[in-house]
Design goal:
globular, single chain, binds zinc ion
Amino acid sequence: MKPPALPISRRELIASALALPLLAESPAHPLKIVVAGGHPGDPECGCAGTIARYTALGHNVVLLYLNRGEGFCGGASLSRCADIRTAEAEKACQVLKARALFGGQYDGRAIVDPPHYDDFARVLAAESPDLVFTHWPIDRHRDHRAVSMLTLDAWLKAGKRFALYYYEVAEDTMMFSPGDYVDISLVESRRRAACYAHASQQPDKWYPKQVEITRFRGGESGFQQAEAFVRHPESKIGLLP
Ligand SMILES: [Zn+2]
Protein backbone atom coordinates (compact mmCIF):
# COMPACT_ATOMS: atom_id res chain seq x y z
CA MET A 1 0.00 0.00 0.00
CA LYS A 2 1.24 3.43 -0.89
CA PRO A 3 1.94 5.59 2.22
CA PRO A 4 -0.21 8.70 2.48
CA ALA A 5 1.47 11.86 1.25
CA LEU A 6 2.75 14.02 4.07
CA PRO A 7 1.07 17.39 4.16
CA ILE A 8 3.55 20.19 3.74
CA SER A 9 2.70 23.76 4.45
CA ARG A 10 3.47 26.56 2.04
CA ARG A 11 5.88 28.04 4.54
CA GLU A 12 7.79 24.73 4.93
CA LEU A 13 7.98 24.40 1.17
CA ILE A 14 9.45 27.87 0.82
CA ALA A 15 11.77 27.22 3.76
CA SER A 16 13.13 23.99 2.32
CA ALA A 17 13.55 25.51 -1.14
CA LEU A 18 15.53 28.39 0.35
CA ALA A 19 17.48 26.30 2.85
CA LEU A 20 18.85 23.70 0.44
CA PRO A 21 21.07 25.95 -1.66
CA LEU A 22 22.30 27.63 1.54
CA LEU A 23 23.45 24.32 2.97
CA ALA A 24 24.89 23.06 -0.28
CA GLU A 25 27.07 26.09 -0.89
CA SER A 26 30.38 26.61 0.79
CA PRO A 27 31.88 30.06 0.24
CA ALA A 28 35.28 30.22 -1.44
CA HIS A 29 36.41 32.66 1.25
CA PRO A 30 34.53 32.00 4.48
CA LEU A 31 34.25 35.06 6.69
CA LYS A 32 35.32 35.15 10.33
CA ILE A 33 32.67 36.82 12.43
CA VAL A 34 32.94 37.62 16.15
CA VAL A 35 29.85 38.44 18.20
CA ALA A 36 30.93 40.03 21.48
CA GLY A 37 28.61 40.15 24.47
CA GLY A 38 28.74 40.85 28.18
CA HIS A 39 27.42 37.52 29.44
CA PRO A 40 26.67 34.04 28.16
CA GLY A 41 23.35 34.48 26.36
CA ASP A 42 23.80 38.08 25.17
CA PRO A 43 25.16 37.34 21.68
CA GLU A 44 22.44 34.72 21.31
CA CYS A 45 19.72 37.08 22.52
CA GLY A 46 20.63 39.78 20.01
CA CYS A 47 22.05 37.85 17.09
CA ALA A 48 21.21 34.10 17.20
CA GLY A 49 19.18 34.24 13.99
CA THR A 50 21.93 36.09 12.13
CA ILE A 51 24.56 33.68 13.50
CA ALA A 52 22.49 30.68 12.37
CA ARG A 53 22.26 32.18 8.89
CA TYR A 54 26.00 32.86 8.70
CA THR A 55 26.99 29.34 9.74
CA ALA A 56 24.45 27.80 7.36
CA LEU A 57 26.29 29.68 4.60
CA GLY A 58 29.62 28.17 5.72
CA HIS A 59 31.05 31.21 7.52
CA ASN A 60 32.89 30.89 10.86
CA VAL A 61 31.35 32.55 13.90
CA VAL A 62 32.83 33.01 17.36
CA LEU A 63 30.72 34.08 20.34
CA LEU A 64 33.01 36.09 22.61
CA TYR A 65 31.63 36.40 26.15
CA LEU A 66 33.30 39.00 28.36
CA ASN A 67 32.69 36.83 31.44
CA ARG A 68 31.30 33.40 32.38
CA GLY A 69 28.17 34.68 34.13
CA GLU A 70 29.57 34.25 37.64
CA GLY A 71 26.93 36.56 39.13
CA PHE A 72 23.69 34.66 38.55
CA CYS A 73 22.58 31.15 37.65
CA GLY A 74 19.06 30.80 38.99
CA GLY A 75 18.82 28.93 42.28
CA ALA A 76 22.27 27.32 42.21
CA SER A 77 25.09 28.47 44.47
CA LEU A 78 27.17 31.32 43.03
CA SER A 79 30.30 29.17 43.24
CA ARG A 80 28.82 26.91 40.54
CA CYS A 81 27.64 29.67 38.17
CA ALA A 82 30.76 29.93 36.02
CA ASP A 83 30.68 26.17 35.29
CA ILE A 84 26.94 26.04 34.71
CA ARG A 85 26.91 29.03 32.39
CA THR A 86 30.03 28.01 30.50
CA ALA A 87 28.31 24.69 29.75
CA GLU A 88 25.17 26.53 28.63
CA ALA A 89 27.22 28.77 26.34
CA GLU A 90 28.96 25.74 24.81
CA LYS A 91 25.57 24.13 24.21
CA ALA A 92 24.19 27.29 22.57
CA CYS A 93 27.24 27.48 20.31
CA GLN A 94 26.76 23.85 19.34
CA VAL A 95 23.18 24.64 18.28
CA LEU A 96 24.43 27.59 16.20
CA LYS A 97 27.50 25.72 14.85
CA ALA A 98 29.65 28.47 16.34
CA ARG A 99 32.57 28.51 18.80
CA ALA A 100 32.56 29.90 22.34
CA LEU A 101 35.37 32.15 23.57
CA PHE A 102 35.67 33.86 26.97
CA GLY A 103 37.18 37.27 27.69
CA GLY A 104 38.39 36.50 31.22
CA GLN A 105 36.48 39.22 33.09
CA TYR A 106 34.06 38.77 36.02
CA ASP A 107 30.28 39.14 35.83
CA GLY A 108 29.09 42.50 37.15
CA ARG A 109 32.61 43.81 37.70
CA ALA A 110 33.73 44.65 34.17
CA ILE A 111 36.91 46.68 34.10
CA VAL A 112 37.62 49.21 31.37
CA ASP A 113 41.18 50.44 31.82
CA PRO A 114 44.38 50.39 29.75
CA PRO A 115 45.43 46.78 30.59
CA HIS A 116 41.90 45.48 29.90
CA TYR A 117 41.66 47.43 26.65
CA ASP A 118 44.92 45.74 25.62
CA ASP A 119 43.76 42.27 26.73
CA PHE A 120 40.51 42.54 24.81
CA ALA A 121 42.21 43.90 21.69
CA ARG A 122 44.62 40.95 21.79
CA VAL A 123 41.78 38.44 22.05
CA LEU A 124 39.99 40.04 19.09
CA ALA A 125 43.12 40.42 16.98
CA ALA A 126 43.93 36.72 17.47
CA GLU A 127 40.66 35.89 15.68
CA SER A 128 41.43 38.15 12.67
CA PRO A 129 37.75 38.97 12.25
CA ASP A 130 36.20 40.33 9.07
CA LEU A 131 33.19 41.56 11.00
CA VAL A 132 32.46 42.16 14.67
CA PHE A 133 29.09 42.65 16.36
CA THR A 134 28.92 44.13 19.85
CA HIS A 135 26.42 45.66 22.28
CA TRP A 136 25.08 49.12 21.50
CA PRO A 137 26.87 51.33 24.07
CA ILE A 138 23.79 52.97 25.60
CA ASP A 139 22.55 50.13 27.78
CA ARG A 140 21.30 49.55 31.31
CA HIS A 141 23.99 46.99 32.16
CA ARG A 142 27.55 48.01 33.02
CA ASP A 143 29.03 44.85 31.50
CA HIS A 144 27.26 45.53 28.20
CA ARG A 145 28.53 49.10 28.11
CA ALA A 146 32.01 47.82 28.99
CA VAL A 147 32.24 45.29 26.18
CA SER A 148 30.96 47.92 23.75
CA MET A 149 33.78 50.30 24.77
CA LEU A 150 36.39 47.53 24.70
CA THR A 151 35.30 46.54 21.19
CA LEU A 152 35.30 50.10 19.89
CA ASP A 153 38.80 50.63 21.25
CA ALA A 154 40.06 47.38 19.69
CA TRP A 155 38.51 48.41 16.36
CA LEU A 156 40.28 51.80 16.43
CA LYS A 157 43.52 50.15 17.47
CA ALA A 158 43.18 47.71 14.53
CA GLY A 159 42.89 50.67 12.12
CA LYS A 160 39.16 49.90 11.54
CA ARG A 161 40.27 46.78 9.67
CA PHE A 162 37.08 44.83 10.39
CA ALA A 163 33.48 45.92 9.94
CA LEU A 164 31.80 47.00 13.19
CA TYR A 165 28.10 46.56 13.90
CA TYR A 166 26.01 47.04 17.04
CA TYR A 167 23.10 44.86 18.20
CA GLU A 168 20.26 45.23 20.71
CA VAL A 169 19.15 43.04 23.60
CA ALA A 170 15.69 42.92 25.17
CA GLU A 171 15.10 45.27 28.12
CA ASP A 172 18.66 46.63 28.33
CA THR A 173 19.37 48.50 25.07
CA MET A 174 18.27 52.13 24.91
CA MET A 175 18.09 54.72 22.09
CA PHE A 176 18.70 52.21 19.30
CA SER A 177 17.87 53.28 15.73
CA PRO A 178 18.96 50.49 13.39
CA GLY A 179 19.71 50.81 9.71
CA ASP A 180 20.56 47.21 8.75
CA TYR A 181 18.28 44.20 8.97
CA VAL A 182 18.71 40.44 8.65
CA ASP A 183 15.70 38.25 7.86
CA ILE A 184 15.60 35.54 10.54
CA SER A 185 12.09 34.21 9.80
CA LEU A 186 13.32 30.79 8.67
CA VAL A 187 15.76 30.11 11.49
CA GLU A 188 13.41 30.73 14.42
CA SER A 189 13.68 27.19 15.81
CA ARG A 190 17.50 27.30 16.03
CA ARG A 191 17.46 30.77 17.45
CA ARG A 192 15.02 29.63 20.12
CA ALA A 193 17.04 26.50 20.93
CA ALA A 194 20.23 28.58 21.32
CA CYS A 195 18.52 31.00 23.71
CA TYR A 196 16.86 28.20 25.68
CA ALA A 197 20.27 26.53 26.13
CA HIS A 198 20.70 29.22 28.81
CA ALA A 199 18.23 27.46 31.09
CA SER A 200 19.64 29.03 34.29
CA GLN A 201 18.72 32.47 32.92
CA GLN A 202 15.00 31.68 32.83
CA PRO A 203 14.57 32.27 29.09
CA ASP A 204 10.78 32.23 29.45
CA LYS A 205 11.15 35.67 31.03
CA TRP A 206 13.17 37.40 28.30
CA TYR A 207 12.90 35.35 25.14
CA PRO A 208 9.29 36.41 24.36
CA LYS A 209 10.41 40.05 24.73
CA GLN A 210 13.21 39.53 22.25
CA VAL A 211 10.71 37.94 19.84
CA GLU A 212 8.52 41.04 20.19
CA ILE A 213 11.55 43.09 19.16
CA THR A 214 12.37 40.93 16.13
CA ARG A 215 8.71 40.98 15.02
CA PHE A 216 8.77 44.76 15.31
CA ARG A 217 12.06 44.93 13.37
CA GLY A 218 10.50 42.59 10.81
CA GLY A 219 7.65 45.07 10.44
CA GLU A 220 10.15 47.83 9.77
CA SER A 221 12.01 45.84 7.12
CA GLY A 222 9.30 43.79 5.40
CA PHE A 223 10.13 40.40 6.94
CA GLN A 224 8.19 38.24 9.37
CA GLN A 225 11.04 38.55 11.89
CA ALA A 226 14.34 40.40 11.63
CA GLU A 227 17.38 41.20 13.74
CA ALA A 228 18.47 44.80 13.39
CA PHE A 229 21.87 46.44 13.57
CA VAL A 230 23.62 49.78 13.56
CA ARG A 231 26.79 49.95 11.49
CA HIS A 232 29.39 52.32 12.87
CA PRO A 233 29.28 55.17 10.34
CA GLU A 234 33.06 54.96 9.84
CA SER A 235 33.03 51.17 9.41
CA LYS A 236 33.39 49.40 6.11
CA ILE A 237 30.21 47.65 4.97
CA GLY A 238 30.21 44.06 6.14
CA LEU A 239 28.54 41.17 4.37
CA LEU A 240 25.31 40.48 6.24
CA PRO A 241 23.60 37.15 5.55
ZN1 LIG B 1 24.07 40.54 29.64
